[in-house]
Amino acid sequence: MLVTVTSRSGKEVVKGGIQLSENATVKDLKASIHKRTGNLYPERQRLSLPLVSGETRPIVLDGDKRLCDVFPEGSDHIVILKDLGPQVKYSTLFFFEYVGPLFIYAMFYFLPLYKFVGLLEKRVIYPVQTYATIYWCFYYFKRIMETFFVHKFSHATSPLSFVFRNCCYYWSFAIFIAYFVNHPYYTPVGETQMYIGFGLGIICQLANFYCHIILKNLRDPKGQGGYRIPRGFLFNYITCANYTTEIYQGLGFNIATQTVAGYSFLVVAAYIMSHWAAFRCLVQK
Amino acid sequence: MAGLAILKRIYLAVYNWVVFAGWLQVLYWAVQTLRTSGYEAVYAAVERPLQFAQTAAILEIFHGMFGLVRSPVSATLPQIGSRIYVTWAILWSFPETRTSPIVSSLVLSWSITELIRYSFFGMREAFGITPSFLQWLRYSTFYILYPTGISSEVGLILTALPYVKVSEKYCLRMPNRLNIAFDNYFATLFTLASYIPGSPYMYTYMIGQRAKALAKAKKSA
């Protein structure tokens, strides 16, 4: 069959269209488009059907579908191509998001940075500040390890611009929090409160890790897509238990360290994760 | 619901004309004072209507958020933010800045711009008419008044800077139980720096709005 590939404005993107076998899938079409255009690798392409009158959202074409099933009876074989821009793997995105805070926090703990804002060089280091550094750095180390060895990602890629946007978010808050917890004039909380905080944090990190294992095992080993509802452990009670444990581990850190910076990060992160969870709940229904 | 639409229109009509009246007072007293007493007395003469009219503009952020008006929050927030900052965090907080001649250029730029803007929207909401002369003013005077207004804002912030540093006003120092600190001097420098990307952004936004408005006017003519 001959497939015509146009942009959203109607201009033909691949001159003369693409000739494919009758059993070809959307994936084959994307591979052909990549060959013809050179720079548009499949992850950069979003293929959809032309909008029928009355529709506002286009139907995006799924990779595994056969082309003959995708086009409505008797219609022209036209697909609309949108260039999603340069893409990066999710693991790349996550790595850069997490590696920043890991090193930034350690810098504020180990290096004499505060003299640059006119403060004293020598300072008393409280135990809580040392534990906080270990906790924070281990936390982001854990996240990096999970990114490469635990998580199985659905969409292969994410836009490059997300790297800059997300890193701004993570790295800025890391600087904000690390600055105040390691500050020469930092006021520690009582010992009991510190132990409660870190204790809660460690328990929730372990729980969070287990949630990630459950989620990883949901994915079909053959790599078939589709959403499955997680079961077992906390997922029997909470839709997105992985986010819940994430939030409570952050709460543990803040109970132990007590800074406005830390709590504000917790509030923003919880807000963002609640949005994701609400969407997930919707999908589950 | 038709009732809701009418309510919205009445509210916007009242809002625009009330704030217009505020700015009219500002312009009147500014000009009067310049003619009789001189620039040092301008702030004292316009303080109350200025604070009223400028602070009322905060409502416009909510108008955009709740869809009462079409302006995106990304354009209204920096504009109103800088205005409120100069009105309260600079002029009201640091009286030493009030006798500067820059106050006059600031107040004149702001009031003329706002009079045009509020009367334009007020006409549209209350009477359903958009006089082409008013529209032309709204989308043309900014070419001069944005630069004069922005320079005045920056000038006043610079004037206040030494007083900000010395007075330590609004500063929060450590140690404290919340482990937070705020240095007003750094924050003020940061605000000044934000004018560097902010001003071209607002200026080009208005140029874009002008092109859109004139294209629309041509189509309907």
UniProtKB/TrEMBL annotation, chain A:
Ranges in coiled-coil conformation: none
Keywords: Lipid biosynthesis, Lipid metabolism, Membrane, NADP, Oxidoreductase, Transmembrane, Transmembrane helix
Subcellular location(s) per record: Endoplasmic reticulum membrane
Transmembrane residue ranges: 92-112, 124-141, 162-181, 193-211
GO CC terms of this entry: endoplasmic reticulum membrane
PROSITE patterns found in the cross-reference section: S5A_REDUCTASE
Domain 3-oxo-5-alpha-steroid 4-dehydrogenase C-terminal: 157-278
Family from the record: Belongs to the steroid 5-alpha reductase family.
Protein name (record): 3-oxo-5-alpha-steroid 4-dehydrogenase C-terminal domain-containing protein
Organism: Ceratopteris richardii
Automatic annotation (TrEMBL), chain B:
Transmembrane segments annotated in the record for this chain: 12-31, 142-164, 184-203
EC number, UniProt record: 4.2.1.134
Domain of life from the UniProt record: Eukaryota
One of the GO biological process terms: sphingolipid biosynthetic process
Catalytic activity: a very-long-chain (3R)-3-hydroxyacyl-CoA = a very-long-chain (2E)-enoyl-CoA + H2O
GO terms for cellular component: endoplasmic reticulum membrane
Keyword Endoplasmic reticulum assigned: yes
Subcellular location: Endoplasmic reticulum membrane; Membrane
Keyword presence, Isomerase: no
Record GO terms (molecular function): very-long-chain (3R)-3-hydroxyacyl-CoA dehydratase activity
Broad EC category: lyase
Function of the protein: Catalyzes the third of the four reactions of the long-chain fatty acids elongation cycle. This endoplasmic reticulum-bound enzymatic process, allows the addition of two carbons to the chain of long- and very long-chain fatty acids/VLCFAs per cycle. This enzyme catalyzes the dehydration of the 3-hydroxyacyl-CoA intermediate into trans-2,3-enoyl-CoA, within each cycle of fatty acid elongation. Thereby, it participates to the production of VLCFAs of different chain lengths that are involved in multiple biological processes as precursors of membrane lipids and lipid mediators.
Family statement: Belongs to the very long-chain fatty acids dehydratase HACD family.
Name this polypeptide is given: Very-long-chain (3R)-3-hydroxyacyl-CoA dehydratase
Organism from which the protein derives: Ceratopteris richardii
Source taxonomy: Eukaryota, Viridiplantae, Streptophyta, Embryophyta, Tracheophyta
